[in-house]
Write a structure and sequence with these properties.
Layout (H helix, E strand, L loop, with lengths): L2 E8 L3 H12 L4 E4 L15 E2 L7 H33 L7 E8 L5 H15 L4 E4 L10 E10 L2 H14 L3 E3 L4 E7 L2 E6 L4 E9 L8 H5 L5 E9 L9 E4 L6 E7 L2 E12 L6 H15 L6 E6 L1
Helix pairs in contact: 1-4, 2-3
Amino acid sequence: GDKEADVLVVGSGIAGLSTAYEFLARGRQVTVVDRGAIGMGMTARTTAHLSSISDDGYSELIGRRGEDLAQLFHDSHASAIARIAQIVESEAIACNFRRVDGVLFPGDARGEARIEAELDAAQRLGIEAFRQQGVPFDGLGTVTALCYPGQATFHPMLYLAGLAAAISARGGRILADTGVATLQESGGRVVAGTLDGRTIRARCAVVATNSPINDLVAIHTKQAPYRSYAIALELPAGAFHDVLYWDTLEPYHYLRLAGADGRQSVIVGGEDHKAGEADDGVERFLRLEEWSRGLLPQAGRVTHRWSG
């Protein structure tokens, strides 16, 4: 039926459920809606790098937007990771959260210049970073890499399950399969119309749908969504440390360890392209596997493939 709430949150990924959690902690009545299953949008397709490092590099960010904004970018991401750590502890969420280093390594001969530029940018912003000799991949034992301590990783779906349980325990309402068709302000309230003809009225609404469903012209004309690909390969124990790795190629590759039930895997991502400009997913998965085996010849079979 029709619903009332202090706050309506549209979208149940990590942005939506985190927002709902924070409002409930401040005594607000919250309703979360999602057009599909809870937590099964793009958050479910990530590779779980919790990083305060800019994908484009801080040298690029400083050049485009200046040191103040670059500093704000870093501080915002670092604070988000710290908040996740607090919630994991306070809500006793078993999601394998752990602090790990992040390491940027050269993907080709030009990569070492990028490493030096990023070290200089980190020093200008007061970000902890230091050179490291070598990474544990075939042929890269002597390259100069850049280590950023204090990054993190976790199991995002287990974390969202814990958030959803905490939201429900605090009286929050979570509605799956409830797509929002319209969102309007009326009489000092926000009125959301659902795809099946219901109405949800709230004092305010937060749109957390990855790409916003409101204000289409203002946002969509400025967005350029990209698709990224990921695979998981079996890996012998001890192949490399529990670290987030990224290379300097464009588009770049990224990898990390994962494991459950005593088995270890490496999750590798990359081969990004602008959405709609390619339809060759099979070839991209094969290139990703070829790149992975070039660095980790001891890797076993591919167990999973996905994209987002």
